[in-house]
Amino acid sequence: xxxxxxxxxxxxxxxxxxxxxxxxxxxxxxxxxxxxxxxxxxxxxxxxxxxxxxxxxxxxxxxxxxxxxxxxxxxxxxxxxxxxxxxxxxxxxxxxxxxxxxxxxxxxxxxxxxxxxxxxxxxxxxxxxxxxxxxxxxxxxxxxxxxxxxxxxxxxxxxxxxxxxxxxxxxxxxxxxxxxxxxxxxxxxxxxxxxxxxxxxxxxxxxxxxxxxxxxxxxxxxxxxxxxxxxxxxxxxxxxxxxxxxxxxxxxxxxxxxxxxxxxxxxxxxxxxxxxx
Length: 277
Known about the structure:
Helix content: 55-70%
Shape: globular
Distance between the termini: 70 Å
Mean pLDDT: 93
Order of helices and strands: HHHHHHHHHHHH
Largest sheet: none
Number of strands: 0
Strand content: under 5%
Radius of gyration: 22 Å
Number of domains: 1
CATH architecture: Up-down Bundle
Low-confidence stretches: none
Number of helices: 12
Structural class: mainly alpha
CATH class: Mainly Alpha
């Protein structure tokens, strides 16, 4: 029988009385103490952790998207490609989270649903910021956050900045020497498809070798919206599987509301131009 392996004998640091440890660096005491179920229901812990981890992934997505905006605004799209690819992978992780949540049955959910009160993922300010950054700006959604001046301020500040798609279109204008109508760049409303923008992207896709940077930028945006759409689809499927067509805890129509969100297109011209190639 061999002796138990001691990593300290190979040089691993084993004492952290005076040095920062893994848990110190990550703030694990605070993170792991943040799960506070309000019932004795077994599945409430799953529900809390799934949503908390989703918010952490969204925080990283916002970090990456902010850097994307800086790159595009600075006139160099290429460094943004890796960040956009990373955000797509983040949404892949968010998609996978629904698979875990779907192990919760309707019977499981009813054991603690009343404890949620009127709280709902519909109220996530980080999700709202992501939508606003990408171009789906709906001022009506801000009313959910009126009780928090700090969160409302974050959203108002976002509405004052160009969206990531705005900056992509500015890059498109510069590279192709075209100009789009001012309404293409409206700040406080969802982006609407524009024929001139569709024609410009069509030019890029007809000659990708000539416009490679724009071509790659467009495909990275498409990847992102592809994963974003899958996330929305998995969301509505999970909700229907768990609560059917009941109203959401936050008062929305539940599945009906989520199905309506499936119709939203962040970058409509990039979808529309494909049929004309």
